[in-house]
Amino acid sequence: MSSILSEADLNDFISPGLACIKPVQNEQKRPENSEDALVVGKEPSEPQKVSISLQDCLACAGCITSSEEILLGRQNHKVFLEAKSNFTAGMSLAVSISPQCRLSLANFYDLSLDVFDAAFLNLMLCYFEARYVVGTQMGRTLSISETNYELSRRKTLDKYKKPQLCAVCPGFVLYSEKTKPELVPHLLDVKSPQQITGALLKANNQNIYHLAVMPCFDKKLEASRADTEGEVDCVITPREMISMLQELNLAFSDFLNGPSLQDLQQRLTPEGWNPRLHWVSNSGSSSGGFAFQYVLNEQRSNPGSEIIQIMGKNADIREYRLVDSTSGQVLASSSEVYGFRNIQNLVRKLGGARRTSRNIVITRKRASEKNASDSKPTEPEPARTDFIEVMACPGGCINGGGLLNEEANTTRRRALAKKLDTQYSTLLPQTECSEEFVSSNRYKFSAIQKSTDVVTVGNTW
Ligand code: SF4
Ligand code: SF4
């Protein structure tokens, strides 16, 4: 979802003037005793509310600001507090929090990351009586490892559709499903760190209520998908967390002087997990590093190769090429494409792949001429890479709409995202994600290819 959206905007209802991608059925009650004849020019004076479920909504920014029920009906802090107060005997709370949210909250409270982490764990333990509190790196390591495994496997198939698209950003997945079904076959079917973390937490104990603190509202939609339901019970954003503490009259500073971070991590880590590993991160972008981790993994099986980074005209496009240091041959490639505008360009370029036979001949000729200089860093060409990390938010997840970055001024907002991005790569210790982490339980989801005959008027994409 667009980062300009916030829960605070969700205060009106869908205007019939904004046509949703979900066909709107404006059912009017027939007045009693009416004949079948239509009365021309007679319109209802009041616009009617349109009912759209979480699973219908694309979060396309068309009217998400107007659909209060969509986001707040099933996934908000009030729902969490009510569920918590109704826990039955034996029910336990597990909380997961993404690294982007930890950095955003630490920045908001003006605390170092370690001090914030300790206070957050203390708050969840002492006030909310959480049994487990975890970072999302275990889920992410599995998500990256499965992505790499799946990419290597698909490259050997005849029907391999290049480029493969990362499907961990629900904003992009929903957009593809609802308005660009031709992209769906390109989507990888590997679940996101949020969902895998949920599956891990509930693997041996279904009596767990899983609250996830995530950087955007789209994550609520992801948690509500039919094929992932049950892994995450409620998603709240850092903004909602602050509102919740205010409503509960809780001061975050009251939880600063608890046990040490190490003690809390030890105590709140699920049995069998390494207490440090789920709090770290991995190399690559602050949106998960999926693109970089793919070429890094390919490099492991290509000794003597090097990774070249090619920056785009804007900071939201980047390409990684793995090249043979001797021959200069490109062995693998991936890219990062963030923000709606760049995604639109990408979609246009992918659509351009459907050329006439004449064009195909010319393109092949040009491609073969180009191979000689393939390794030379020029402009990123995401549509030609093996794999693309696509993120709906400009700047990626470090600029998610649920983070505490409500700067009205765009320049200051970007500066804050850049600051958090730098902290992400310098403050979080990094772990390796290799295929040895691929588990026998495959964490798959199914993107849905819907028909194209849907109403798209009012769609801002
Ligand atoms: S217009 Fe877009 S954001 Fe609004 S309800 Fe429809 S899909 Fe969701
Ligand atoms: S880029 Fe990240 S924060 Fe933004 S919508 Fe996608 S998953 Fe959410």
UniProtKB/TrEMBL annotation:
<feature type="compositionally biased region" description="Basic and acidic residues">
    <location>
        <begin position="366"/>
        <end position="383"/>
    </location>
</feature>
<dbReference type="InterPro" id="IPR050340">
    <property type="entry name" value="Cytosolic_Fe-S_CAF"/>
</dbReference>
<comment type="similarity">
    <text>Belongs to the NARF family.</text>
</comment>
<keyword id="KW-0411">Iron-sulfur</keyword>
<keyword id="KW-0408">Iron</keyword>
<dbReference type="InterPro" id="IPR009016">
    <property type="entry name" value="Fe_hydrogenase"/>
</dbReference>
<dbReference type="GO" id="GO:0051539">
    <property type="term" value="F:4 iron, 4 sulfur cluster binding"/>
</dbReference>
<feature type="domain" description="Iron hydrogenase large subunit C-terminal">
    <location>
        <begin position="93"/>
        <end position="401"/>
    </location>
</feature>
<keyword id="KW-0479">Metal-binding</keyword>
<feature type="region of interest" description="Disordered">
    <location>
        <begin position="364"/>
        <end position="383"/>
    </location>
</feature>
<dbReference type="InterPro" id="IPR004108">
    <property type="entry name" value="Fe_hydrogenase_lsu_C"/>
</dbReference>
<dbReference type="Pfam" id="PF02906">
    <property type="entry name" value="Fe_hyd_lg_C"/>
</dbReference>
<protein>
    <recommendedName>
        <fullName>Cytosolic Fe-S cluster assembly factor NAR1</fullName>
    </recommendedName>
</protein>
<keyword id="KW-0004">4Fe-4S</keyword>
